[in-house]
Amino acid sequence: MNAVNAAGWRPSMGDSGQATGGVATASGDYGLMLEEALSFELGAEGKCGVDLDAADRAPMPGLSKFLRKEAPALPGLTEPEVVRHYTRLSRQNYAIDLGPFPLGSCTMKHNPRLNEKMARLPGFADVHPMQPQATVQGALEVIEQLADWLIGLTGMASVAMSPKAGAHGELCGLLCIRAALDARGEERDVVLVPESAHGTNPATAAFAGFKVESIPATPAGRVDLAALKEKLGPHVAGVMITNPNTCGLFEPDMKAIADAVHEAGGYVYCDGANFNAIVGKVRPGDLGVDAMHINLHKTFSTPHGGGGPGAGPVVLSEALAPFAPLPFVTRGPDGDIHLVEEENRGEGHGRSFGRMVAFHGQMGMFTRALTYILSHGADGLRQVAEDAVLNANYVLRACEDVLPAPFAKSGPCMHEALFSDSGLAEGFSTLDIAKGLIDEGFHPMTVYFPLVVKGAMLVEPTETESKAGLDRFIASLRSLAERAKAGDESLHSAPHFAPRHRLDETQAARKPVLVWQG
Amino acid sequence: MRYLPLTSADRAEMLESIGAASVDDLFVDVPAQARLPGPIEGLPAHASEMAVERHMSALAAKNLSAGSAPFFLGAGAYRHHVPSSVDHLIQRGEFLTAYTPYQPEIAQGTLQVLFEFQTQVARLFGTDIANASMYDGSTACWEAILMASRITRKGKAVLSSGLHPHYGEVVRTMAKFTRDEIVSLDTELTAEPDDAAVIAQIDDNTSCVVVQYPDVLGRIPDLAAIAEAAHAKGALLVAVVTEPVALGLIEAPGHLGADIVVGEGQSLGVGLQFGGPYLGLFGCREKFVRQMPGRLCGQTVDADGKRGFVLTLSTREQHIRREKATSNICTNSGLCALAFSIHLTLLGGGGLAKLAAVNHARAQATIERLTRIPGVELLNEAYFNEATLILPRDAREVVNELAGRGVLAGVSLGRLFPVADGLHKGLLVAATETTTDEDIETLATQLENLLVGVPA
């Protein structure tokens, strides 16, 4: 095994010999497989990648007692070194641009580059959030147009645009519910959440000050309507239902659930993470939903960026619309668009629950999402949902004979196919299949979620995949299932062909090293 | 549709292979009365790339962009020059179109960037550790208050009057629901920040004091004194930095006793973007790590003993802890963290110090010139790249009228503090390395003309 050399270079991937035919190189790199040190190990004092004129004034006297004793201990690199560092690092990532990324419930679809170009127009990218409103009418119009589309696509009464991501949108929806209950003078403190829900749902409910009680599922993977009705009562503020749900299934009783909740005096929050499956096919507003966030980074293709930024506008029913957070845009009788903020909320918006973020939300995501929506139009978005659902069902039916699909018998799935690792050879599990997919050149599906299915594998191909691409993925998944059933030991050490073999997560958590120690 | 690879023939073949007569057979679980028969009426159909570009460009053209006018706005969002390589690198598809690194073996690029980012933020803030980012400065500020209350098991937070009013509004909005007690002090036009008033509010029930540094009026609080007073009562100091470039020149809050340091990272790499997406920065003492919100990247080894990185300590997080999580945050600001990190790597510590010195010098030049105008006075005893001027008349009207003359003059305190009394003549003026002598002269001339009544 290579040691870390004096410059701190990491030992290379060639050691196992599997990827390199036993050849060892002096550099530790192998052709296009390039290792990369930390920027802190590469940099040197006195180097800089930015040319700056010297300051033409000394610090003002009043500042002298505040001056930093030493500049921050950060390495300097010149521009070519910086470009190379990040380019080399980028090559250690899998991405949608490289191939299928069927991460269930994340909707990893193609990110059109027109969206990037539009977001970078100076009129959008280089405007300040507190410029006089007369100088940003176009930016406000983007917010207005996107809001109109989201309202039209969901059949809801209004939309709160400022939440910064899906979980932030959940919080917005629950705070609207809290505000509506306060306005009614009712203290309801329980939110019902299905066991299969994404972890953000119970976390958000707790964050908003509610107690969480879970709703059981039917054997067919849906909310148990009868059990839900039993839990309803004067203490229940509302329910959080994901639809389509995290098992990739539409909740056929959604309207009945909503009616029962409303009758009991509660509100219906819908987690819209999976809206991509139904956009243009059904409007949540027709199903009795009171609030639903829309992940613009899922359904409307703003890039996931290695973990954000996202955006989570929340569409609202008539009942919750008056409580929407500040700021929002409104068009005045003069034809100009205005921001409604703390000062002008007045009587018309006096019931808003307040402000969730410093400025107006994720403008850079709004421009991208609007560009995406205009490109597809109402017809194209409907086709998106149909293709996404068709692709998922194609995977489901092509693999259900080799991997158990717990809900496949009850009918078609929506946008994602759910499998279980039951029936693999002793000692083999979902993890082995996932890591095997890496060697096959694919990003793994979502694993061990939802929690209600043993060894869950949630495959969301999205509409981005071609039939030929799906056929290749299916062949790989089938092959891995067969190998795991046959007890192929080589799967335990997969991935063999990635920049790293399996990483020791236990050690990382036991003695956390969160910053460079050098 | 240019983004949809399936052909009609593919669709027919796939439907046949799964045994469905039509795609609508796949939507049988949707109640028939809720199923839409066709594209939603009243919404336009798809459009070509050229047509969409035309539409969006027309909207963009209705805005006066910062680069096309003398520009002096700050107040929590700053216009800095972002080196070209930053935007090119973040558009590498391997960064742009990846997601949260759930599979670390094929996400070492993102993970190593996050590890470097965490180290950079910690060194900038003078804290032991930092997380992998939050949504923005205002939400990071609220999360810091929640964290302080978990650590101290006390429920009263004191907000300095120098905290950005939008941050204060976010905190007060959220606290209404969690029932944390928030003590907010009224902002007044004084040369020095309200350190003494903040200290006077600290009692045995105080979980934390929240102090912006430099504050929203550009003044610089004495963090060391506030930290000492807070610690004496068992409270924590949360420092809020909305202009990280300042930390190239003034001392890091962590070195002055701050226990948690949060901030807005937009200044480096991210750009103005009309308010978002921005970048929440979050650093703290190492002993508080298990109470921290947000994702953390940690160093480990792989099966061959090679150094690698993973997301770690996820037992704090919602996907494991559900309703007992430290926060509900999931997606954060990964790509903005990358932009920040690249920009800071280009600068290095020495470059950041130089950039900060230039910012301060440009601000001095701006303030010196503007205070030569009769009736215009400087409020601050000290400032970094932003200061408050007192005008002889309502500053909000002045800003709007100057915008009509093609000058973006700053942020009026009337806009920032719409419901406060006695602040309406205040004008917050920021300068950065992008501010030219010509910009300053244009602003000064136009402001002087306006104040003496010369028509536009």
Automatic annotation (TrEMBL), chain A:
<dbReference type="GO" id="GO:0016594">
    <property type="term" value="F:glycine binding"/>
</dbReference>
<dbReference type="InterPro" id="IPR049316">
    <property type="entry name" value="GDC-P_C"/>
</dbReference>
<dbReference type="Pfam" id="PF00266">
    <property type="entry name" value="Aminotran_5"/>
</dbReference>
<dbReference type="Pfam" id="PF21478">
    <property type="entry name" value="GcvP2_C"/>
</dbReference>
<dbReference type="GO" id="GO:0005829">
    <property type="term" value="C:cytosol"/>
</dbReference>
<dbReference type="GO" id="GO:0019464">
    <property type="term" value="P:glycine decarboxylation via glycine cleavage system"/>
</dbReference>
<protein>
    <recommendedName>
        <fullName>glycine dehydrogenase (aminomethyl-transferring)</fullName>
        <ecNumber>1.4.4.2</ecNumber>
    </recommendedName>
</protein>
<dbReference type="InterPro" id="IPR000192">
    <property type="entry name" value="Aminotrans_V_dom"/>
</dbReference>
<keyword id="KW-0560">Oxidoreductase</keyword>
<feature type="domain" description="Glycine dehydrogenase C-terminal">
    <location>
        <begin position="386"/>
        <end position="485"/>
    </location>
</feature>
<dbReference type="InterPro" id="IPR020581">
    <property type="entry name" value="GDC_P"/>
</dbReference>
<dbReference type="GO" id="GO:0004375">
    <property type="term" value="F:glycine dehydrogenase (decarboxylating) activity"/>
</dbReference>
<dbReference type="GO" id="GO:0030170">
    <property type="term" value="F:pyridoxal phosphate binding"/>
</dbReference>
<dbReference type="GO" id="GO:0005960">
    <property type="term" value="C:glycine cleavage complex"/>
</dbReference>
<dbReference type="InterPro" id="IPR015421">
    <property type="entry name" value="PyrdxlP-dep_Trfase_major"/>
</dbReference>
<comment type="function">
    <text>The glycine cleavage system catalyzes the degradation of glycine. The P protein binds the alpha-amino group of glycine through its pyridoxal phosphate cofactor; CO(2) is released and the remaining methylamine moiety is then transferred to the lipoamide cofactor of the H protein.</text>
</comment>
<feature type="region of interest" description="Disordered">
    <location>
        <begin position="1"/>
        <end position="20"/>
    </location>
</feature>
<keyword id="KW-0663">Pyridoxal phosphate</keyword>
<feature type="domain" description="Aminotransferase class V">
    <location>
        <begin position="185"/>
        <end position="305"/>
    </location>
</feature>
<dbReference type="InterPro" id="IPR015422">
    <property type="entry name" value="PyrdxlP-dep_Trfase_small"/>
</dbReference>
<dbReference type="InterPro" id="IPR015424">
    <property type="entry name" value="PyrdxlP-dep_Trfase"/>
</dbReference>
Automatic annotation (TrEMBL), chain B:
<feature type="domain" description="Glycine cleavage system P-protein N-terminal">
    <location>
        <begin position="1"/>
        <end position="445"/>
    </location>
</feature>
<protein>
    <recommendedName>
        <fullName>Probable glycine dehydrogenase (decarboxylating) subunit 1</fullName>
        <ecNumber>1.4.4.2</ecNumber>
    </recommendedName>
</protein>
<dbReference type="GO" id="GO:0019464">
    <property type="term" value="P:glycine decarboxylation via glycine cleavage system"/>
</dbReference>
<dbReference type="InterPro" id="IPR015424">
    <property type="entry name" value="PyrdxlP-dep_Trfase"/>
</dbReference>
<comment type="function">
    <text>The glycine cleavage system catalyzes the degradation of glycine. The P protein binds the alpha-amino group of glycine through its pyridoxal phosphate cofactor; CO(2) is released and the remaining methylamine moiety is then transferred to the lipoamide cofactor of the H protein.</text>
</comment>
<comment type="subunit">
    <text>The glycine cleavage system is composed of four proteins: P, T, L and H. In this organism, the P 'protein' is a heterodimer of two subunits.</text>
</comment>
<keyword id="KW-0560">Oxidoreductase</keyword>
<dbReference type="InterPro" id="IPR049315">
    <property type="entry name" value="GDC-P_N"/>
</dbReference>
<dbReference type="GO" id="GO:0004375">
    <property type="term" value="F:glycine dehydrogenase (decarboxylating) activity"/>
</dbReference>
<dbReference type="InterPro" id="IPR015422">
    <property type="entry name" value="PyrdxlP-dep_Trfase_small"/>
</dbReference>
<comment type="similarity">
    <text>Belongs to the GcvP family. N-terminal subunit subfamily.</text>
</comment>
<dbReference type="GO" id="GO:0009116">
    <property type="term" value="P:nucleoside metabolic process"/>
</dbReference>
<dbReference type="Pfam" id="PF02347">
    <property type="entry name" value="GDC-P"/>
</dbReference>
<dbReference type="InterPro" id="IPR023010">
    <property type="entry name" value="GcvPA"/>
</dbReference>
<dbReference type="InterPro" id="IPR015421">
    <property type="entry name" value="PyrdxlP-dep_Trfase_major"/>
</dbReference>
